[in-house]
Amino acid sequence: MREYPKGNMQMRYRVIGLGALSLVLAGCNASPKPTAAPPPLTPGPIHPVNTVTAHILPSSQATAMIPTAVDPLSPSLIYALAQTSSNAQVLRSQDGGQHWTRIGTVPGSSPKQLEFVNSEDGLAISPHTLWSTRNGGQSWTLQNRQGLEHVCFANAHVGFAITPNQHQVVGTIDGGHIWNVRLSSPDVSFSDVSAAGTSVVYALGGSSSGPRLYRSTNDGKSWTLLFANVSQSPLARAYKQYVKAMAFPTVNPLPQFKQGGQIDFTSPTTGWATLFSGNYLAQAVLRTTDGGAAWNYVWGNSGCAMGCNAMGGGLHPATFYGPADVWRFDLTRIDVSTNAGKSWQHSSPLPFSLAASQAVNDIAMISPTVGWLSTPAGIYATVDGGLHWAQQWPNIPMTASRISMRPSGAGWMVTQNLASTLWVTHNGGETWTALPHTFGVIASLDLWNHSRGMVVSLQGVSGITRDGGRQWIPLNWPQSMKSGLNQALGIQFVNSRDGWATNLSDQLLTTENGGRKWSPVHQFPPGPLAVDFLSTHDGWALTGVKSSRVSPSRWNVHVVMTHDGGKNWSSAGSIHLLENPMSLSFISMNQGWVATANSLLETTDGGRTWSAVSLPHVHPASIDALSAHSVYLVTLRGRLLKTQNGGKTWISLIP
């Protein structure tokens, strides 16, 4: 964290773990030419098609990562932790969470808290280890193997924490590199610490007699005990309010909150104490406006005092900001109060439904309106005070519809559920970024190199980009090709001018001006049709009909090729298939692939013979081949797979 104006400190959300009965997180908070007659089609040899099963390997980079902490330094600069099976990845955003970069790794550790005091110096904290960085998270140094808990900074230099044995409060004046004991008590298990300005700090703990709160006004050099149990001043009035609000029956004894809890001071005088009872799983949230001299009850939970089936009603982990802004997590939503809990607004339903102790790991508010939360599903942001939350990381598509990939690793993709969004990758599909430009439903996409490509939308705006999608030059398509029997289907461009399209009448059309004017160039016979062009001259097509002479359930598909841009076609062979061919992709005049709903076939002799490529138990929808070994496959259910060894094994990019 960093230094804030007085009374305006960023506050950090702490989750009370129901299962572990303890506090588990802490901190401060997208003129017609003549048509030549086709030559006769002469089927070539039929190669038997056998089913071969391959294995799916985990992606080398797309290892599952679970966000565990988020730490905004400003509305634009944000750091976060994402836990993998072996380490913690450090993420950074420099544009308010719109884009994230992995900048480093905390090795062999499971940190749950991240605290940056400026753009270069930060700490990654777990109960067992403490790591520090002085280069913005690129590399990390192990400071000690004992670790710290509930670290909280008042400014870039002064901070406080609790030792793993929970009997000591320690402090630092050099940004967390050296720590010294500030408060020690063998009778108290400290549960939280809160810095409230440059010199005021509060420490909360539990004891055999009840909760204990200490205050220091000189950076921890000396301390004053503010309360030691719930029955005496200054907690007595707030405790009576809690008991009355819970309407306890005759219960002896009542929850005494001997485990301490969470303490959050948003200024030197205004603070919140969330007391916790391990015996009853009860919770009471109290507020003070005079530095802890007097407290009032705000909300709470009776836990198991009235039967454990009453659990959950009101047990809300919360975060606080300024004098009166409160956010509390309520299983499926965030409750928001701007008047210190007197009234609440409910956020829209959150995009996850896990239990309270599992769903939200960390909430950090940078202002009354802007903040971030981390969950197992990702990092989410709000700009309206918590009423609405949008996922920012991982910013990945959930399904795939069509792709266009290049050997360099650049690629475009359209999803099934958001066909107007264009996703971009620069590393072969391991990670994807959604472009901000909005299209209509995308009918075709062609990427020619890492920066130049075309997107065709028959219901919206089509365009060409020369800078990787940042800017687009609009394209105007003929209205006649947007609907009816002339509606364009299989659209493909090999550059910004030359393209082909098929329609519902089984015509092949061509354009030489980027799609503004189209001319029919060939009429195919009725039946399944798929076309793939390698250049302005060379291309391949699959055409054929369902043939009862072979089998009532088989397709007799002819493989034809052209060397004059689609005017004339000659036969290369034929394939007897059980299903309609879905897609074809050629990398040369000899080698190509055909996908059906249940198989993937390969030819290395220009389509004369075909053999089965090993395939997982998936149903192909489309393919994009880049080389003899590298092939991308989209399935009917929206999965994206790639092989780098000709289909022996497959990597799942979008599972």
UniProtKB/TrEMBL annotation:
Keywords: Photosynthesis, Photosystem II, Signal. The keyword Signal applies. It comes from the Bacteria. GO terms for cellular component: photosystem II. InterPro entries: PSII_CF48-like_dom, WD40/YVTN_repeat-like_dom_sf. The keyword Cytoplasm does not apply. Residues 1-36 form the signal peptide. Residues 558-652 form the Photosynthesis system II assembly factor Ycf48/Hcf136-like domain. This is Photosynthesis system II assembly factor Ycf48/Hcf136-like domain-containing protein. It comes from Sulfobacillus benefaciens.
